[in-house]
UniProtKB/TrEMBL annotation:
The lineage of its organism: Bacteria, Bacillati, Bacillota, Bacilli, Bacillales. Residues 1-85 form the Core domain. Pfam families: Fe-S_biosyn. InterPro entries: ATAP_core_dom (IPR000361), HesB-like_dom_sf (IPR035903). Transmembrane segments: none annotated. Gene3D superfamilies: HesB-like domain. This is Core domain-containing protein. It comes from Paenibacillus hexagrammi.
Length: 88
């Protein structure tokens, strides 16, 4: 799996990902009804969780729980559009 970040996403995430933190790609099904209804989510974590797999990504370190890989494409792009969804 490979993730590409746009310049806008890099600019927005860089100040947030400090002090050795990393991104974890999650298919969050909490409150969604069943396991195939979920929301792709990025979590900021200190380290990979047990059962995680590394994701090829630059310039950030990323992981994903192995069981969630089925919900994502092999090549993905992460973008940031402030008018659509601001990061808090």
């Amino acid at each position: 799996m490979k993730v590409i970040f746009t310049e806008a996403a890099i600019d927005k995430l860089t100040p947030v990902l400090q002090h050795g933190s990393m991104l974890r790609l999650v298919f969050d099904t909490e409150g969604c009804g069943c396991s195939v209804n979920g929301v792709p989510t990025l979590w900021i974590v200190a380290e990979p969780s047990s059962g995680d797999t590394a994701i090829e990504a630059e310039p950030f370190q990323m992981s994903i729980h192995t069981k969630d890989e089925i919900y994502f494409e092999e090549l993905m792009k992460i973008d940031y559009q402030p008018e659509k969804n601001p990061i808090y």
